[in-house]
């Protein structure tokens, strides 16, 4: 099988049907208002308000069971919401089925027809739509090329690897040129190398053909690498909808902060505008008195070699508990006086090699690298 990494050559071609092309202006292509869905009293999706704009590549990110698939199925028309409304391209589709919507879904597990060839699978939707055979052949060829499966056109689905089936499922959905392409954990079954390759191909395909992609994943790295906007879901709700950089650097909630990337979390109190992480690590922070969660990322913490920290820095003493080489960096685990674990990621320099387990060092970080959440 040919899975070597070569740049994609994508031909542009005329719209195969009226569902093609980018949406217009600043009107959202997908708009969800107050959408809820419960299963036997359990709120799988709870009051979703979401606007997706034409050309967006949106990732719906969250842990298993948080409601991602349920949300996607409601956009695709496979499930009806209990409450709320869904508009796609200015049309209220809340009560419409999948066939009436300008969407196509690539399901988890691909959902290919096992008794059909690759070519027949990709052309299936066009055939159902009554398109002439010559046109179907042309569109199938173009989409086979798009996912680099041209040489497998005549194969049976059962003769393909998981990664190849993935490509066929993608080509089948792309062949319809949906205004909104919905993908549910589409790369999850692939091994790491192939997954990364498919991520970059998916980005290239999106850039080349345009349209709006909505991709469900539980993998933060995948969401960040694919999407220009990420909706972080927790327990049926969207906790933040923003760019990957904003989600990472300015998480809206402590759930987002800890789900996305690594985080050191301190549970403490704010009293009269002062937060004390420990007896020594004290800083001013305005807000009501009460419980707070303070977050600092491991890459923002450094070891103090000499001198004392600046006023704009927080410092505390901690003992080295563990040290593990991670390739491009080393992860150090510390325990402070209060028994709290603090993780620090450091570049592999000579100083690092001298640090011994059991040694007590001073850690410091800029005060403005901390994020405080009121609980
Ligand atoms: N058809 C269904 N019947 C009953 N419960 C369901 C059904 N579909 C999903 N759920 C429940 O709804 C919750 C959200 O599921 P799902 O949307 O599949 O989550 P995710 O895709 O984020 O893993 C889960 O608790 C799941 O068990
Ligand atoms: Mg799911």
Largest sheet: 6 strands, mixed
CATH architecture annotation of the largest domain = 3-Layer(aba) Sandwich
Radius of gyration: 25 Å
Binned strand content: 25-35%
Small molecules bound:
adenosine-5'-diphosphate, magnesium ion
Write the H/E string, N to C. Answer: EEEHEEEHHHEHEHEEHHEEEEEEEEHEE
Description:
It is a single chain. The protein has about 375 residues and is of the alpha+beta class. It folds into two domains: about 30-255, 3-Layer(aba) Sandwich (Rossmann fold); about 260-375, RNA polymerase II/Efflux pump adaptor protein, barrel-sandwich hybrid domain (OB fold (Dihydrolipoamide Acetyltransferase, E2P), Beta Barrel). Helices cover about 25% and strands about 35% of the residues. The protein has nine helices and 20 strands. It has a six-stranded mixed sheet with strand order 6-7-8-3-9-10, sandwiched between helices. The longest helix is centred in the middle third of the chain and has 18 residues, at about 190-210. It is elongated. Residues about 1-25 have low confidence and may be disordered. It binds adenosine-5'-diphosphate and magnesium ion (MG). Adenosine-5'-diphosphate (ADP) binds near residues 67 and 69.
Please give a quick description of this structure.
This protein has 375 residues and is of the alpha+beta class. The chain contains 9 helices and 20 strands.
Question: What is the fold's blueprint, element by element?
Answer:
Elements: E1 30-39, E2 42-52, E3 57-61, H1 68-76, E4 83-88, E5 91-92, E6 103-106, H2 118-128, H3 133-146, H4 162-175, E7 180-184, H5 192-209, E8 212-217, H6 220-226, E9 229-234, E10 237-242, H7 244-249, H8 254-259, E11 264-271, E12 274-276, E13 282-284, E14 290-296, E15 302-304, E16 313-325, E17 330-336, E18 341-346, H9 350-354, E19 360-366, E20 371-374
Parallel strand pairs: 3-8, 3-9, 6-7, 7-8
Antiparallel strand pairs: 1-2, 1-4, 4-5, 9-10, 11-12, 11-14, 12-13, 14-20, 15-19, 16-17, 16-19, 17-18
